[in-house]
Each structure stands twice: as C-alpha cells, then as structure tokens.
Amino acid sequence: MDRKGRFLSSCFLAAALACAALGVGCAHHYRVYDPYYSDYHVWNDQEVGYYHTWAHDRHYDEHRDFRKLPPDQQKEYWTWRHSQADHDHH
C-alpha cells in the first residue's frame, strides 16, 4: 500500500474509533441494580430525568455519575424513585 492509501486507512480507522468512543460516552442505556428493592432499572433518558430532578431538589450535583454516589445517597434516590407514580423497572 502506498503512502496515500495508508493515510486514508489511518483516517478511516481514526474516524471509526472516534465514533465508537462518542457513542459509548453518550449512551445512557445500561441497567442499574437497586439492592434496596431487589430490582433493576434501565438507566435511560427517562431515568436520567428523574435523577436530575431528585439531585436538583436536594442540591446535589445533577451531573455526578449515579454509580459514584455514596451508598446512603443511592439508597435515598431509590427510596424516592420508588415513591414516584411511574417507577419503571426492568
């Protein structure tokens, strides 16, 4: 392969890796286990909305990753979340 071909191949590879990294970084769809209610919740845009509401109302950082919250705050969230009318869990 000549220099131009290797350069184009490198560009395509870099673009593919960048797209994959951005896609994974932006995806909010994963399952979170709620040990207090022994169920799973799909962490999607709807759950993120609930989380932001809960965090905002309590003056917590809305952008902090839920998985990095201290266990007592996670429990507080799940207790609140299960008190909401629409508490989807899967």
Description:
By secondary structure, the protein is mainly alpha-helical. The chain has one domain. The chain is built from three helices and two strands. The chain has helices at 3-26, 45-57, 71-82; strands at residues 30-34, 39-43. Strands 1-2 form a two-stranded antiparallel sheet. The chain is elongated. It starts with a helix and ends in an 8-residue tail after the last helix. The model is unreliable at 16-25 (pLDDT under 50).
Order of helices and strands: HEEHH
| Rg value | 19 Å
Number of strands: 2
Biggest sheet statistics = 2 strands, antiparallel
Structural class by sheet pairing and helices: mainly alpha
Distance between the termini: 51 Å
Strand content: 5-15%
User: Can you give the mean pLDDT?
Assistant: 79
Assembly form of the protein: single chain
* Low-confidence sequence ranges: 16-25
So what's the overall shape? elongated
- SS element count, helices: 3
Structurally, the number of domains stands at 1
Largest beta sheet: strand ordering:
1-2
In short:
54% of the residues lie in helices and 11% in strands. By secondary structure, the chain is mainly alpha-helical. The protein has one domain (3-82).
